[in-house]
Amino acid sequence: MPCLDISTNVNLDGINTDSIFSELTKAVSQIIGKPEKFVMILLKGSVTLTFGGNKEPAALAEIVSMGGINTEVKRKLIATLGSILENKLYIPRTRFVLKVFDTTMGRQNSKL
Fold first, then answer.
1. Who contacts 21 (Cβ-Cβ below 8 Å, separation ≥6)?
2. What stretches of the chain adopt beta strand conformation (E)?
3. Pairing verdict, β 59-65 and 40-44
4. Are 97 and 49 in contact (CB under 8 A)?
5. 66-112, pLDDT tens digit by residue?
6. pLDDT score for 109
7. N or C: which end of the chain has fewer CB within 10 A?
């Protein structure tokens, strides 16, 4: 089950987040190759967050998945999720950081 957890200093009050959740869910599902019904998205706004020493719009995200992660997938996730946040929340892609965790990395034969 991929889980994407996004924290941003952007205030989400008054923003229709339904389309953001929908786009993020579809993107994660397609890029990682897991069904949408297993994708979880958390989006937290108005978080005290600085990037580069200032409080301009920025976001930190973490994605955890049981398999499906490799270098190419990481690149696609960073580019695609960054574009969604830039288009929907006006967070420049240069102010978006993504941490990626594959819970099966390092295991020869995962039993999960």
1. 41, 43
2. 3-8, 40-44, 59-65, 96-102
3. unpaired
4. no
5. 999 999 999 999 999 999 999 999 999 999 999 999 998 765 554 44
6. 54
7. C
